[in-house]
């Protein structure tokens, strides 16, 4: 049996409101899982090797619930545009390059390495419409040992001709990818209509049928920008959430919806009843002048919320940056409405490490959880004569990838 002991200062979240701390504690790891937790090593384990991380802090890895791998190479471009302009000027052209598998290989490898470097070991990812380069993305992520969901994008109208799919072909290729990868252990398929405006009714209906037939989760965009919301109304004469819901793309299987800035009362109700997870992408919402997700209001309504870097409309792949910005934006809302209190470190840390349970039971240093961890050396950030909470907060605000000295997923070290 592959047993080992890891010692350090562990910090994690069990719920939105509290952090849990295990100071100078030993975890007994067996086959990638936490088998036992103790302050002093019991005699029966005295002969096991102890990996002692001394005064370092150890946290669960980050979970990114929304980002676009093919937009990795265009981070920071077009940040003076709004959503629809940005898509037309930069994004669609960049995504078109992924018809070339050589290009896909190069960018997807850089993308995966950067994710790992920044401590994101689980992610839910958009690819492009291209089947072959989507397969490359699956293979690259498997190679590095990350746990992900990967979606081939579907899009059959209201986009440039070079990205417009034939509806039947789009559905057929999606089904082929599902069949090829649904039994993967680490990187699994997810149904990914880009968003309602670039999909025909027929495409959405077909995707919903595939989701149910194979029990595959769903990701898309919802109510990101006011012009887009108006456009959906014109195209479908219906509430945005309802468009997805009527096509079995809204919680009929586990569903992630990015942005959720301009939800109606009915939309919020539907998300809650269907247990749809809202993904907060603060960087891209600011960069594209989309707006601010009303996180506190949605939390009060009982919605489940996770975080997304939304590369490339978001410019930094580091989820830490999204955590800080989520707090900052919530303070701007609070400034004008004292009933909506700002997000706390506890809340954003919970969102960033538990990922709304989309990946199941993760994010805790508790018995029966898999051992997933980032080892943080914060000695260059100032004194370590602080509480563990203070050191965590400081790392989130002013640390960077260089502070992460080791990364573990299911007990195995992940390298890049
Ligand atoms: Zn997005």
Describe the structure.
This protein is α/β, with parallel strands linked by helices and 416 residues long. The protein has two domains: 106 residues, Urease, subunit C, domain 1, CATH 2.30.40; 296 residues, TIM Barrel (Alpha-Beta Barrel), CATH 3.20.20.140. The protein is built from 13 helices and 17 strands. A hairpin with a 2-residue loop joins β16 and β17. α2 runs parallel beside α3, α4 runs parallel beside α5 and α11 crosses α12. The site of zinc ion has 5 residues, from β5. This is Guanine deaminase. One of its GO terms (molecular function) is guanine deaminase activity. Keywords: Hydrolase, Metal-binding, Zinc.
Topology:
Layout: E1 3-13, E2 19-30, E3 33-38, E4 50-59, E5 62-68, H1 83-96, H2 101-117, E6 120-126, H3 131-144, E7 147-151, E8 153-154, H4 167-181, E9 187-189, E10 192-193, H5 201-214, E11 218-222, H6 226-236, H7 240-245, E12 255-259, H8 265-273, E13 277-280, H9 282-287, H10 295-300, E14 305-307, H11 319-336, H12 345-354, E15 373-376, H13 388-398, E16 404-409, E17 412-413
Parallel strand pairs: 1-4, 5-6, 6-7, 7-9, 8-10, 11-12, 12-13, 13-14
Antiparallel strand pairs: 1-2, 2-3, 4-15, 15-16, 16-17
The structure holds zinc ion (ZN).
Residues 66, 68, 221, 258, 310 line the site of zinc ion.
Second CATH tier, the architecture of the largest domain: Alpha-Beta Barrel
Uncertain spans, ≥5 residues at pLDDT below 50? Answer: none
The largest sheet has its strands arranged as: 3-2-1-4-15-16-17
Largest sheet at a glance? 7 strands, mixed
Number of helices: 13
User: Can you tell me the number of structural domains?
Assistant: 2
Instruction: Return the structural class.
Output: alpha/beta
CATH class wording of the largest domain: Alpha Beta
- Assembly type of the chains comes to single chain
Approximate helicity band: 25-40%
Distance between the termini: 27 Å
The shape, in one word, is globular
Named once each, the bound ligands are:
zinc ion
Mean pLDDT: 96
Secondary-structure element order, as H and E? EEEEEHHEHEEHEEHEHHEHEHHEHHEHEE
Please state the CA-atom Rg, rounded to the nearest Å: 21 Å
CATH fold descriptor of the largest domain: TIM Barrel
- Total beta-strand segments: 17
